[in-house]
Amino acid sequence: MPRYNPAVIEPKWQAFWEQNKTFATPRMPAAGQEKFYALDMFPYPSGNGLHVGHPEGYTATDIVSRAARMQGKAVMHPMGFDSFGLPAEEHAIKTGEHPRVNTEQNIDTFRRQLKMLGFSYDWDREIATTDVEYFRWTQWIFLQLYDTWFDKEQQRGRSIGELEVPDDVAAMGDDFARSWVDEQRLAYQSSAPVNWCPALGTVLANEEVIDGKSERGGHPVVRMPLRQWMLRITAYAERLEKDLELLDWSEGIKALQRNWIGRSTGAEVDFWISGTSDVSGRGRDPAEIECAKFLDRRMWGGYPQKPNDDVLRIYTTRPDTLYGATYMVIAPEHPYVERLTTPENAEAVRKYCDAASMKSDLDRTELAKDKTGVFTGSYAINPVNGEPVPIWIADYVLISYGTGAIMAVPAHDERDFEFAQKFGIPIKAVIQPGDHISAEDAAKILAGEMVYTEPGIAINSGEYNGLATEAFKAKITSWLSTLGLGREAVNYKLRDWLFSRQRFWGEPFPILHELDDEGNKTGHVIAVDESDLPVDLPHLEDFKPHGRPEPPLDKAPEEWLYPVIDGKRYKRETNTMPQWAGSCWYYLRFLDPTNTGAAIDPEIEKAWMPVDLYVGGAEHAVLHLLYSRFWHKVLYDRGLVSMPEPFQKLVNQGMILGENNEKMSKSRGNVINPDDVVKEYGADSLRLYEMFMGPLEATKPWNMQGVSGVYNFLGRVWRLLVDDRADDMVLASTVTDAAPTEEQLRVLHKTIKAVTADIANLSFNTAIARMMEFVNFFTKAGTIPRECAESLVLLLAPFAPHIAEELWQLLGHEDTLAYEPWPTFDERLAQDDTVEIPVQVNGKLKSKVSVPAGADRDATEAAARADARVAELVEGKELVKLVVVPGKLVNFVIKG
Ligand code: ANZ
After folding, report:
1. What is the pLDDT of residues 652-680, one digit of tens each?
2. Is residue 274 predicted with pLDDT exceeding 90?
3. Which of 320, 621, 720, 761 could potentially form a cystine with 472 if both were Cys, beta carbons 3.0 to 4.6 Å apart?
4. pLDDT score recorded for residue 281
C-alpha cells in the first residue's frame, strides 16, 4: 500500500466526502461570515462525455473554493446541467426514444466523471434545465418578461399594469388597445424568418444550415416568415453597455460585448418625398410650393417622433456628408416600397423584393459579392440644398437597423461607392482628404473615382465648407433640429432576441392562444396562470417531423394542445424556448434549488449574490453572458433580485489544444479523454497538470509528458511523508518533531505567502512551481519538521485534494482538512531573503553587500558601512554626498 496509488485513495476520499456531505453549503452564510460564490459554466451533457477542456475551468474554481473554505468563508460552489438541446432531439427522431431518456443517461455520465475528478460541489444543489421543477420557474420568469414593458423615460422595466394606454389608442377600441399593449411587452410576437427545409419537412436551426443547404442531407433550405416570440433586449442596450463599467471582467470580453451591442451615434434626417424630380425647376411649380409649405410646417411644428407620411426618414452617422447624397436607399421590406414605386417600375421592384426575402441578413451584407438594387421611380428632397434625390431599393440596407432607409453618399461610403459605380449614379466628393493621402489618390477621390471614408475638411457643402468633420456634424445636427428636420440619434446593432424554436426538446411557452367559435386563433393570447405552471412537454408517439413548417408540438395530443378554461377552448403555444433560456438564471436557482413556492427566496438571493467568480469558455462572451445579464436586469427592475449585475468577476479559460497544437476534434484524432488520464495517473495529476500547463487564460497544447511530470511530483510529496518500504501506512522518518530552523521557516513562509497570493490571482501554475521548489528543498535536506509537512499538505489540498486528505490523515488528523484553517505567514520570514547591492566610492564600484530585500535607507547604508573594504576607504574622510537607493545602490562621494 505505501506506494502512491491514486486508484485506491481517490475513490476512498470521494466516498468520504459524499457520505459526510463535506461540501454541503448552508442556506445562508453564518452571521458575520464572508461569502464566496464560485460558479462554473455548467456543461451541456453531450453523448461524448466530459472533455479535458471542462476540468480546466472547473479545477480553477475548485481550487479557489477549497482555499476560501479553509480561509473561513462560506462557499457556494454548485454544479448542474444545461440539458435541453438539439442532439438529444436528433437522437429521439432516429430512435423514437424520448429525449429525456438519452439526456438523463448523458447527465449520469457527466456526473460520474465530475465526481471522479474530486470537485468540491454541493451535489444536493444539482439542477438540470430539463427538470420540470426547474423549467417551471424558467416559464415563470418568461411570464415576468411578458408582464413587463420598458419605460424609456425612467430607463427601466415596469409592470404592464402600470402602462397607460394613450387616448388616441384607446379611442380605437378595446381590441386595438389590447394589441397595442401586447406590442409594448418585453416578450412579444412578431413574424420572423425561419429556415424551412421542405425535403426534411422541418424547420432547421441556423447551425443546421450550411451555405443554404441542410447540414443533414444537403437539401435546399428556404427562408420563410413564421410567427415567433421575441424578447426586447434592445430596450436594455444602453444599460447593458453602461453597466459593463461595474464589472471586473477582462477588457477583451467587455470589448466583445460592446461590439455586439454596437452603440452608434449619428442623426436622423427627414427627406421630404416629392414624388417627382421636377422641383428642381426652381420656378414656382406646385411641387416646390408644397415643399416650402412642408418646411414651414416643420419649422413651427418641430420634429415628430414618428415620421409623417410625407417624409422618408433616414439614419446616418455622417450628417456632415449630406451635400454628397446622390441617391437614397430603402430596405426591400420598407413600408413605403409600394407607395414610392411608380407603375413602370412595379414589376422589377416586386421581383427584386421577392428575391431579397429569400436571403438572410448575412447573405445580404457581409457575404454579398455584388451590390444589387432597383430604382423606385420616386425622389425625395435633400433638406440642406433642396436637390431631388432618387430613391432606390437595395438589400444591403436592412429594415431592422436605424430607420431602414439611408441617404447614400458614394464618395465617402464603401457600400454606396460600389453601388453607385455599378448603377452609374453620380459620385460627389464633399470631404477634402487629409494630408496622409497621396496627391494622386486625393485627385481620384475628388473626381469620384475612389472612395474616402475618413474624416477631413468639408468641401462642396455650401456655407459649411472648411469645417472639420466633427464640428460639421455638431453644427448641422443642431441646424436640422432647429428646423424640425432631424435630430441626434443613437442606434444599437443589438437586435431583439428571437426567442422561439420549432423544436420539441425545449421549454414550452406558458402561453395560450384564444380561439373563436370556429376554432380559429383570434390573434390574442393569454398567459397561463402561475398556479398552472409548470407546462410540461406532452407525450408524443414519435418525434419525426410532421412535414409542415409549424413546430413539432403541433402533433401533440388534443388534451394537451387544446386546454379548456372556464368553458373556453384555447390552443397552446407550440413553439419552445431556445437552449439559451435555461442558462439565463441557473446561477440564481443553485442558491435555492428546492424552493417550491418561488424561483428563489429573496433573503437567500441577497445573502449570496452576486457571483464572485465566474469561469467558463470565451465562446460565451456574447450570447449567454448578454442574455443572462438582460434577464437579470429585468428581474432587478421588477424587484425580484437585489443587484443590477449577476457576475462580478468573469474569467475565460484558454482553449486546450491537442498534442499536435491543433484544436482537439474527433476527426483530427487528437482528443484526450479525461477518463483515460485518470485511469493512468489519477485525478489529482489531471487537475494539477491542467493548472500547471500555463496561465489559466492562455491557449495551450496538451502534453502527456507534462502529466507524468506532475504525477512524479506527487510521488515525491508522497515519499517525503510516507515510509514506502513499510508494510502499512506510517510516516516516513524524514518527518520529525524538531522545531524548524530559521532557513526552513523562511522557505515555509515564503511558500505560504506566494501560494496564497497566486490563488487569489488565479495564477495556479506559479503556485504549483512554488510547491515543487518547497518539496525539492526538503527532499534534499532529507528531513522535514512536522509543522512544515502539515503546511505543505494544506497548501496542496485545493489542487490535489485526494492525496492531501490521505497525508493529512497519516499526519494524525481524524477529520477532513476541507475546513482546516489556511496556513498563515509571517511577513518578516516571508520576504525574499537578500539582494546584492553595489557600493561605489566616488562613482567607482568598490564592493557588493547583501541586504535583506526591502531593507530601507538606514539599513542599506549601515550594511554598506559595515563592509570592510568600504569602511577602509570611507572612515575618517569628509563625506560630500551620500546616495542611497534602497535595493539598487550606495555611492559615497568623499574628499581627500
Ligand atoms: C450616410 C453616410 C455617409 C454613411 C458616409 C456612412 C458614411 P453604423 O456605424 O453601423 O451605425 N445605414 C444606416 N441604416 C442602415 C441600414 N438599415 N442598413 C444598412 N446601412 C445602414 O453605420 C451607420 C451608417 O450605415 C449610416 O451612415 C448609413 O450610411 C448606413 F460617408 O449615412 B451612413
Report:
1. 999 999 989 999 988 888 899 999 999 99
2. no
3. 320
4. 44
pLDDT at 148: 98
Query: Considering the entire predicted model, what is its pTM?
Result: 0.87
Strand, helix or coil at 157? strand
Confirm whether 357 is domain-assigned: yes
Residue to mutate, 406, 418, 445, 454, ligand 1, most ligand atoms under 8 Å from C-beta: 406
> Do the domain assignments include residue 362?
yes
Q: Over the chain, what is the mean pLDDT?
A: 93
Mutation choice for ligand 1 from 271, 317, 389, CB with most ligand atoms inside 8 A = 317
Q: How many domains, in total, are found in the chain?
A: 2
pLDDT per residue as tens digits for the range 427-484: 999 999 989 999 999 999 999 999 999 999 999 999 999 999 999 999 999 999 999 9
Task: Please give the residue range of the domain that contains residue 882.
Answer: 832-895
Which residues does a 6 A CB cutoff place in the pocket of ligand 1? 264, 315-318, 321, 397-398, 401-402, 404, 406-407, 409, 412-413, 491
Ligand 1 atom with minimal separation from the 409 CA: 3
Last-in-domain residue among 474, 491, 508:
491
**What single DSSP character describes residue 725?**
T
Q: 624 CA to middle of ligand 1, Å?
A: 28
- Per-residue pLDDT tens over the stretch 813-825: 999 999 999 999 9
**Overall size of the chain counted in residues:** 896
* CATH code of 889's domain: 3.10.20.590
Nearest CA to ligand 1 atom 11: 264
Does residue 875 or residue 420 have the better pLDDT? 420
Residue 282 pLDDT > 50: no
Ligand 1, pocket-test mutation among 313, 372, 413, most atoms within 8 A of CB:
413
Query: Which residue's CA lies nearest to atom 12 of ligand 1?
Result: 406
β-sheet bridge partners, residue 576: 501, 508
Task: Please give the Cα distance from 886 to 860 (Å, whole number).
Answer: 6
Domain boundary residue among 469, 491, 513?
491
| End-to-end Cα spacing for the chain | 76
How many other C-beta atoms can be found within 10 angstroms of the C-beta atom of residue 259? 12
Say if residue 851's pLDDT is above 90. Answer: no
Task: Please write the tens of the pLDDT for every residue from 125-144.
Answer: 999 999 999 999 999 999 99
Could you tell me which of 468, 443, 473 has the C-alpha nearest to residue 458? 468
Q: How far apart are CA 117 and CA 20, in angstroms?
A: 18
Instruction: Decide the pairing of beta strands 784-785 and 248-249.
Output: unpaired
Nearest partner of 586 among 37, 79, 219, judged by Cα: 79
> How many angstroms does the Cα of residue 383 sit away from the middle of ligand 1?
18
Residue nearest to atom 18 of ligand 1 (CA): 397
> pLDDT confidence of 299, banded at 50, 70, 90?
confident
CA 406 to ligand 1 center in whole angstroms = 7
Do 811 and 789 meet the contact criterion of CB atoms below 8 Å apart? yes
Is residue 861 in some structural domain?
yes
Specify if 94 maps to a domain.
no
pLDDT at 1 over 80: no
Name which residue sits closest to atom 9 of ligand 1, judged by CA.
264
What pLDDT score was predicted for residue 286? Answer: 66
* Domain CATH for 311: 3.90.740.10
